[in-house]
Amino acid sequence: METALKTKSITISLIQFLSILSIIILAQVIFKNQFITGSIINALLICSVFFLGLRQSIGIAIIPSLFSVLTGLMAPAIIPFVPFIILGNIILVVTFNYLKNSYFLAGAIGAVLKFAFLFLSSSYLFSFLPEPILYAMSYPQLITAILGVALAFIILKKLKKV
Hints:
about 80% helix, 7 helices, Arp2/3 complex 21 kDa subunit ARPC3
């Protein structure tokens, strides 16, 4: 009986992981707008904390950027910045995980930390990148993170996870 429950739990977690990942990948393929795609990805990163826990959420935080690079969706000029994008996603997930009992505080702090990390690293370490890429790593990151927090709240509220 215990083995059957454990297998069922693993199966449900795998389905949730693959569902979240699939939506993120579809968003990247369908929407070519940073504000839409970024908001969806950030929302699903936050949702993954509630559904999957920290470890699997970190996996979800890594995959979207790698997918974009491997499929050619990401502009070649931004590829050197990919590890920083991944770290920004991990910052959001980890912050949210540890503060999730205060949803909006977690969202606000996670969004600001992700934005600050990406903005500062792009400004100081990657100032040689083209201006549109530097802009994409600035205020749009804060906006998409905040929109992601709001969208995740709506999703989680509907699913009664908040």
